[in-house]
Specification:
The complex is a heterodimer of chains A (262) and B (437). Chain A has 262 residues and is α/β, with parallel strands linked by helices. Chain A folds into 2 domains: 1-93 and 241-262, ATPase, nucleotide binding domain (Nucleotidyltransferase, domain 5), CATH 3.30.420.40; 95-236, ATPase, nucleotide binding domain (Nucleotidyltransferase, domain 5), CATH 3.30.420.40. In chain A, 42% of the residues lie in helices and 22% in strands. Chain A has helices spanning 37-52, 81-92, 132-142, 149-155, 167-179, 184-206, 222-232, 245-261; strands at 3-9, 13-20, 25-32, 59-65, 77-78, 96-102, 107-112, 118-123, 211-215, 237-238. In chain A, the strands form 2 sheets. In chain A, strands 3-2-1-4-5 form a 5-stranded mixed beta sheet. In chain A, a hairpin with a 5-residue loop joins strand 7 and strand 8. The longest helix of chain A has 23 residues, at 184-206. Chain A is globular. Chain B contains 19 helices and 8 strands. In chain B, 55% of the residues lie in helices and 10% in strands. The longest helix of chain B has 25 residues, at 3-27. With 437 residues, chain B is α/β, with parallel strands linked by helices. Chain B has one domain (37-436). In chain B, 47% of the residues are buried. Classes of the chains: A alpha/beta (262), B alpha/beta (437). Chains A and B meet through helix 2 and strand 8 of A and helix 18, strand 8 and helix 19 of B. Bound molecules: iron/sulfur cluster. Iron/sulfur cluster binds next to helix 7 and helix 17 of chain B.
């Protein structure tokens, strides 16, 4: 049987997805990107092949995406993460009209049309505010694990407002809030609010139509998702591993290309 | 003005300058760039343009003592100064030149060392950097006798020119234009005309020449005709394929900005227009294969014009219209030599940056329809707040109303320290993917 692969080389993680010829997900894998994008892509591919229990030669076509898409030498095609997230989210949740993708290095809001087509999109400017990196820096400062932040913030009774959007300024703000003995959970909730507000500007610029899907690593954080849902006034679509949606979109493009080719 | 210096200026203008320039041209080795296979044949008029602009900067070295020199903002009603035979320098045009030569960060840094903030427009920082360091790709700019600014483009120029006036201790004429929220009424016009009347004695004094109304009318007529000719030049891009691209127009814009009101600018656009019409007749395009037609919003990214032109050409996408290049034909074409002052007041207060956002939206809609535009690239320029404000709303509204796909790229006109190649690429590639999907 033929298979198709998508690889998303992001700032923090590299994700790979394998599809069957019927566009069913056969397997996915997630590895840390580290310093070398090419190695990470190789590693993710090896991982996903093992997971799917197939060999490399069974893969008919590979599409790479993400900021490191140019450093995937074995890809047949390179497509931006914007097109891939739109298609991936549309495939999982066909009523998706808006995708909010908060990744490690950037965040974007995409308006999706028929067939997963990109109608409009906007990205954060050259700054870590409103991205996964922001949370990573803060988790470090607060000495909590990144993946615990969501749970912790949901436990907070109140919220400490964070006034700086700048990652560097917010970091020193957090230091002084800790020194003033504010509970960690409340600070974290304030940090989540800060991200959501930042991304909200982009949501407003693009507009909300139909279902909203959240993708990217930060969508794993239940605290951020809850605040975003509160702001949207509706619940959002989430995949169990929201990071892989970009790679899924890439794999779908690989599959589609083979369909149209014959 | 001494007789000798005037004589020397005239000699350089007619004989010495052209000779010297051709010698220096021959001496200079040309950097060779492989021609991009996606482009049609280059515009022949470009050689003449280069001559005109080089000569303009070259001659400026001989103005001291021979001609009164004024530094002028791009939106100022320069026609009045031309009637007094001022030699004009446009720091914004010079800033664009520095930007294209990739000198932005260097000159900006000089201004920053003197306490000017990084958020200040980079044209202003380059100009102040030039003031402090004397550095310029044009050799040397002549010291002005007068500064002439109008706040119809932004408030930045007011403070920037005040700083220059303070450093040099020379007169500054400021033309204040009421912002057009809904309409410019008669009392606004008379407020502006009164300002012109008050300027005349100052201009007479600085230039040492009396005001000659007939000369002024003549200048106004030439400026209007030049603006009309520039409009016709731009309109040739309605043809498919468009005979030039907006990236060309960014360069060919220089005479209408900085030599407006002089016969040389009018003659130039007549030549260019003739060439463009011939190209349209022959079906010669700026691109060999024009698949998609785009619109550009905001000032050029001067250090990236070449790269962007290449990138879009590879995609078969040509920019056929821009709000920026359109600005010099949008209103100036309505100058009227029978009512020079009133018409000047109206046309200069209605320029795009002094006009409300609804106006801009309608203008963009019109250009998109007239030029059959498939997509829009919006430059959010960190320097230019008045041009960049409202762009996100405009993008959304144009999508809703016309279904036109667009992309915003965050950059700057000259200071490439705030430009991110990787992020811009990703946005543009996503735009290419979406427009072709
Ligand atoms: S702020 Fe904008 S309009 Fe003003 S000088 Fe700078 S670029 Fe020109």
């Amino acid at each position: 049987m033929d298979y198709f692969a998508g690889i998303d080389v992001g700032a923090l993680s590299t994700d790979a997805v394998i599809l069957t010829a019927g566009s069913e997900v056969a397997a996915y894998s997630i590895v840390e990107t580290g310093a070398n994008s090419t190695d990470a892509a190789e590693e993710a591919l090896a991982g996903v092949l093992a997971e799917a229990e197939i060999v490399r030669s069974q893969i008919k076509r590979i599409v790479a995406t993400g900021y490191g898409r140019v450093s995937v030498p074995f890809a047949d095609k390179r497509v931006t993460e914007i097109s891939c997230h739109a298609l991936g989210a549309y495939h999982l949740f066909p009523d998706t009209g808006t995708v909010i993708d908060i990744g490690g290095q950037d965040s974007k809001v995409i308006q999706v049309g028929e067939g997963g087509k990109v109608l409009n999109f906007t990205m954060n400017d050259k700054c870590a505010a409103g991205t996964g990196r922001f949370l990573e820096v803060m988790a470090n400062k607060l000495q909590v694990a990144l993946d615990e932040m969501g749970e912790l913030s949901l436990r907070a009774g109140r919220e400490v407002p964070i006034s700086s959007v700048c990652t560097v300024f917010a970091e020193s703000e957090v230091v002084s809030l800790v020194a003033q003995n504010h509970p960690t959970e409340e600070i974290i909730r304030g940090l989540h609010r800060s991200i959501v507000n930042r991304v909200w500007n982009m949501v407003k610029a693009v507009g909300v139509n139909g279902g909203v899907a959240m993708t990217g690593g930060v969508a794993k954080n239940r605290g951020v998702v809850a605040l975003m849902e509160e702001k949207l006034g509706q619940s959002v679509h989430l995949h169990e591993e929201p990071q892989v949606v970009g790679a899924l979109g890439a794999a779908l493009l690989a599959w589609r290309a083979s369909q149209s080719a014959g | 003005m001494t007789f000798f210096k005037e004589l020397r200026f005239n000699f350089m203008k007619d004989l010495g300058g052209p000779a010297l320039m051709s010698i220096s041209r021959k001496g200079r080795k040309r950097r060779h760039r492989a021609p991009n296979p996606h482009f049609g044949p280059a515009l022949k008029s470009a050689t003449r343009l280069k001559e005109i602009m080089t000569r303009h900067y070259f001659l400026s070295r001989y103005t001291e003592g021979a001609k009164p020199v004024a530094w002028v903002t791009s939106g100022a009603p320069v026609e009045l100064l031309r009637a007094f035979d001022f030699y004009t320098i446009y720091p914004e045009n010079h800033g664009a030149l520095c930007g294209a030569k990739k000198l932005g960060p260097e000159l900006c840094a000089v201004a920053e060392e003197h306490g000017y903030h990084r958020d200040l427009c980079s044209y202003a920082r380059i100009d102040l950097g030039h003031y402090f360091s004397g550095k310029s790709p044009a050799g040397r700019l002549p010291k002005p006798d007068l500064l002439f600014a109008s706040n119809n483009i932004c408030q930045t120029v007011v403070y920037w020119y005040r700083a220059l006036a303070h450093y040099w201790d020379i007169p500054l004429i400021l033309f204040d234009t009421p912002y057009n929220f809904e309409e410019i009424n008669d009392s606004d016009v008379s407020y502006m005309v009164q300002q012109f009347e008050e300027m005349i004695p100052v201009l007479e004094q600085v230039s040492g020449q009396p005001f000659k109304y007939r000369n002024f009318q003549e200048v106004v007529r030439i400026a209007r005709d030049t603006s009309l000719a520039w409009g016709e030049v731009l309109a040739t891009m309605k043809a498919r394929p468009a005979p030039m691209s907006i990236f060309d127009a960014f360069v060919h814009l220089a005479p209408i900005v900085s030599l407006r009101g002089l016969p040389v600018a009018l003659e130039y656009y007549q030549t260019l227009l003739k060439e463009l019409k011939e190209r349209v007749d022959r079906g010669t395009g700026a691109l060999k294969d024009e698949r998609k037609r785009l619109m550009w919003d905001n000032i050029a990214i001067w250090y990236k014009v070449r790269d962007l032109a290449d990138l879009f050409a590879e995609q078969g996408m040509n920019f056929v219209t821009a709000t920026y290049t359109n600005a010099w034909t949008e209103t100036i074409r309505y100058l009227d030599d029978q009512r020079p002052m009133e018409s000047m007041a109206r046309v200069y207060s209605l320029v795009i940056l002094n006009n409300n956002l609804n106006h801009r939206l309608k203008l963009m809609e019109r250009l998109i329809n007239e030029f059959e535009v498939d997509g829009l690239v919006i430059h959010s320029a960190r320097s230019c707040k008045p041009y960049s404000v409202g762009q996100y709303d405009m993008k959304r509204l144009l999508m809703e109303r016309l279904g036109v796909l667009s992309v915003i790229i965050e950059a700057d006109i000259t200071d490439f320290r705030v430009y991110s190649e990787e992020q811009t690429r990703t946005r543009l590639e996503a735009f290419f993917e979406a427009i072709d999907a």
